[in-house]
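Entry:
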Amino acid sequence: MKKGPSLSGPQKAAALLLTLDSEAAASVLSTLPDDAITMIGKAMADLDMSELSKEHVADLHKEFLQGLRDGATIPPGLAELLERTVGQERGKEILSRIEDSVRRDHPFLALERMEDARLVRLLADEHPQVIALVCSRIPAERAGSVLSAISEEERVDIVTRMAAMQPIEREVVDQIANALAAKAKEQEAIPVDDLNRRMRSVAEALSAADPDVEKEILTALDAKNADMAKEIRDRMFTFADLAKLDKRAMQRVLATVDARQLALALKAADPEVVENFYSNMTKRTREAVEEELQLMGPVPLTDVMNAQNEMMIGIRAMVEKGEIKPMRGSASNMV
């Protein structure tokens, strides 16, 4: 089962309440003091429910009573629920405190939730000090995306500014955040040139096409732009797609790899991929792979990705030769 994100007590309570109907959630909230409601409202604002699987939500249900005893709880969509639970005036006061707390800790929350390409475009023509401020106040992975998209000279300048930045008055930060949020709203209607999305669309279209058409297009593209053709091929058939290979294809794959390489490649693989490999191995091969995994211990993720990439080079070559035929199109098109 895919592991869900790590949540604090208040976030667990917030997620749980978001899965209940409004009556049940209101009933729970009505038993809580203002401080607890404020805490949970803050947690709800930080929570991205799209990251939670059904299994994770089920686990949260099991932890519900314990979560309440820990003193952390509250749901979003919040204004109506608060009004129903504690009355209009008190609800407005609590909501105001929650919003103030969120703005204080996440002044650029609107930017945090933007796609990388839109965030980079939004900041592209801003002063380096503004970019440095934003990067210092948004999650590290989002700041990393911004820094990766600019030139080395700009990157060094912005990181230097971040390291030397002195405390900035709350009012100034709020003004900059409001201006950027307004600018982002204006840019919403402007399409973003997203190379990853374009390449993914091409790969998906070719994967759904007739094999002869796919081969003809990629062969022609090889002559014009070999790098682009390779990237499309890489996206058409990935390590995760090995979960869909049938028994015959898996036997061909297993014949080309040794136990150590396979163990390393499976170390961070999707459970479905691991299961497809194990279910098509002999007992002896499976024992060898499991022994390698036990002896291996922790390894850098880059080593795992390199092992997967090396395997995929050989597997894609077999696909090109017609020795392996991966499932094409969606499951709904299969008969």
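Residues 64-77, 329-335 have pLDDT under 50 and may be disordered.
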